[in-house]
Write a structure and sequence with these properties.
Strand 7, helix 7 and strand 8 form a beta-alpha-beta unit. It contains 13 helices and 12 strands. The longest helix has 18 residues. Helix 3 crosses helix 4 and helix 9 packs across helix 12. Helix content is 43%, strand content 15%. It has 2 domains: 167 residues, 3-Layer(aba) Sandwich (Rossmann fold); 158 residues, Rossmann fold (3-Layer(aba) Sandwich).
Length: 341
């Protein structure tokens, strides 16, 4: 962990400095305060080792509490913040700093493990040690209030941000000539629905997902090892990006949506609480559809047949991304929340 001098604000993040740089610039600009970045590349660790790392970093932070006396510990990955609050409450520790948890998502799990996970999260978020939980959709606030029995003012809202790439460097005419639609992502996806809709049609579908093994129809290609720049290349050269969500009450799909907007590719997304309300204006920067085969095929017909609408959705998506969805913009929004605390 990066050593921070006494009494400094700190951002704990498990991604990379490319993401943290623009974000923390926005936070510093709005708060008028200095922030240190504690980077832990935990996003490259999988399985039980990932969770061991969460608890280890959290415990290190708790034991180093004097470093952040009177300041703010901002946790980009929610499990850092949850584990910090858990340890503080369990050991009845003095409250030394404000603790803010970003990108909070809770999904109910079944069985004994699910009950234990719920108790763990509730034990942390209902403690006096958590000062603010920042959600990525507004619709989640009343849902989490009911689930955890907490007050409304514990939560705030800030839209997701994403890295701003240069779309043109991903241009590939050979790919573009295939005239395909593209889908990617793991969390809360309903690829079964998407495949059922597209098979036996004239549309070409490419799905990039390392956990999807099913393949149905000659017009459907599933890529299990496409990430990073390769994923963006497939996205950039698609006619449209399609996001079909399994549970319309869970916030998911935002990053794929934002990458598509950045790449200038129109998005078709199934209606969901929060994501389509907070990020997409229908027929302005995307097409919002009911989760039916008829609605999806109608939207695809529009995207393929109406070049003017296609280009308008592309342009508006890029404009909205540059204005509202960079990590710098996200940092400024969260900086405003921190300043008002």
């Amino acid at each position: 962990m990066k050593q921070c001098s006494k009494s400094e604000n700190v951002l704990i993040i498990d991604s990379d400095y490319e993401e943290a740089d623009g974000f923390i610039k926005g936070v510093r600009e709005v708060t008028g305060e200095e922030w240190q970045v504690a980077l832990h590349e935990n996003n490259k660790i999988y399985g039980w080792r990932r969770y061991v790392r969460f608890f280890t970093v959290a415990l290190q932070t708790v034991l180093s509490g004097k470093k952040y006396e009177g300041k703010t510990v901002l946790c980009w990955q929610q499990f850092y913040g949850i584990a910090i609050a858990f340890f503080q409450r369990m050991f009845h520790m003095k409250k030394r700093y404000k603790l803010v948890i970003m990108t909070f998502i809770y999904k109910e799990k079944r069985g004994l493990a699910g009950k234990l996970f719920y108790r763990f999260v509730r034990y942390a978020v209902t403690s006096r040690y958590v000062d603010k939980i920042i959600l990525t959709t507004q619709s989640e606030k009343p849902m989490y209030q009911e689930i955890f029995g907490v007050e409304d003012d514990l939560f705030d809202f800030a839209r997701c941000g994403a890295i701003a790439y240069e779309p043109e460097i991903y241009d590939d005419e050979q790919l573009r000539e295939k005239n395909y639609i593209f889908s990617t992502g793991r969390s809360n996806r309903d690829y079964g629905f998407l495949i059922d809709c597209i098979q036996n049609t004239s549309y070409q579908l490419v799905i990039a997902c390392d956990t999807l093994k099913t393949r149905s129809g000659d017009n459907i290609q599933i890529l299990n090892n496409v990430f990073g720049d390769d994923m963006l290349r497939y996205m950039r050269n698609a006619r449209a990006v399609v996001i079909t969500l399994a549970d319309d009450t869970i916030a998911s799909g935002q990053l794929v949506l934002l990458h598509a907007m950045n790449m200038g590719v129109p998005v078709i997304i199934t209606r969901s609480q929060g994501v389509t309300d907070d990020y997409v204006t229908d027929h302005y920067n995307g097409l919002v559809i009911d989760k039916t085969k008829e609605s999806l095929l109608k939207a695809l017909d529009i995207i393929f047949d109406d070049d003017k609408l296609h280009d308008r959705l592309s342009a508006n998506g890029q404009k909205e991304f540059e204005k509202n969805y960079t990590y710098y913009a996200m940092g400024k929004t969260i900086g405003g929340i921190l300043k008002d605390m």
